[in-house]
Write a structure and sequence with these properties.
83% helix; 477 residues; mainly alpha
Length: 477
Amino acid sequence: MSRPFSINVAWIAASSLVENVTSILIFFLVARIVGTEAFGIAAMAFAFLFLGEFLVRDTVTEAIIERQTLEEGRLEATFAVLFGVALLVVLTLCLLAPLIARLYGEPDVAPLLMAGSPAILFIGASGVSTALLRRGQEFRTLAIRDALAVVVGGLVCLALALGGFGAWSLIAQRAVQVGTSATLSIVAAGWVPRRVPAKSEFALVRGLGPSVVLLRTTSLIITQTPTVALGYFANPVAVGLYALAFRLVEIVSRLAVFPLRGVAQSALADLRRRTGVTAHFFLDVTQITALLSFTAFAGLAVIAKPAVLLVIGPDWIGAAEILPYLCFAGAVNSLVAIQEAYVLSIDYLRRFLYAGMIEAAIGIPLIAVAATYGLTAAAAAVLARSLIAFYFRTRVARAAEVISWSRYLSNLATPFVVAVGMALAVGLWGEVVDGHAGDLVVVATSILLGTVCAVGLVVVVMPDTATRLLNLVRRRE
């Protein structure tokens, strides 16, 4: 690992920190203001809005990052396809909105879905520009873009929530955030289509792109299955509680995994172009991801109840009850996220896509049946799905460069030991102070103790990794 890699990770990490601190503050404030039911109704609309976004975001543009050279006309053809798909998705969502609302039994979902869908056009318009920035490893620019977009969107959301707009404030937040991000990407990349692509140039979009479209669609089906199932079989309150718990897990994932994942894909693609061998780097990134995600999710699972009571209030305590299940699933999915970046970077996607389809096929009936028994059962089903799918996903990722199970799992063993040791220490501390201190004291001291324990355990059981992390910052290329 070279110094540019660590600098890029640092920029993405700093951006994620700004984004997520802002998101956390606004998220908790808005959740308190709008309540569980309005939050759940917005989540029902977002389940399908995110499907539209996933079909457009980073799909056919992945080939721009992965290819060794960019052929004449590829950018123009990709832009035309991407914007055309975005327009088709928006029209489809608007037409289906009444049917989706009827499926949920919540008529308020339809106008929210129709109002939020045009934001997808911004993603289509800026997709090529974002891919060019990622290809050039302009992560400082991307970091600043993301941070500004989250801040602007969050402030709009908070203002509308205080004004009594309820679920509409969350829809407006997404539209403003996506629009700001798209505008900054286009300006920073300095690229706009200057001609209509020739018919023959559309063939250049084939290859990695369509497979990534299927991968993104499958990923979103996997992600949104619990929301749709709870919306259909339960009620908006259950959806709201699940959405909040999932959002907390997502925030931790973005802090612990997103910086590495975003940089690793570009770095792996560059390494493949130069050397053709990426397995060792992939395993290094996997171990660091495991260390960060295992400890972060273990800590969140242990302090779930006092944390939710402190920052959101007793009305949301149901979210704390399912957080341990979702945290465990989040830790597993963090490893899958790195696997996805790996197979994308080496153009080994097809079998990984099949593994994702198996996960989606297993998850739909499993979670649907579980949702009829309530929120906790649905969360347990989510965890079961993640564990089953991890085997299939890992099997495919290992096969790309013939990595043995023992070699792969050995990179997870010591991070697991660190996370368990830290969780036990924080859990015992929670038992000691339970009933003797307020939630603020419990959460603050638990975070401090967990950090100290995790660092200490890394130095003791992972000295080579600790040294490598320090060298990662200090080394020159």
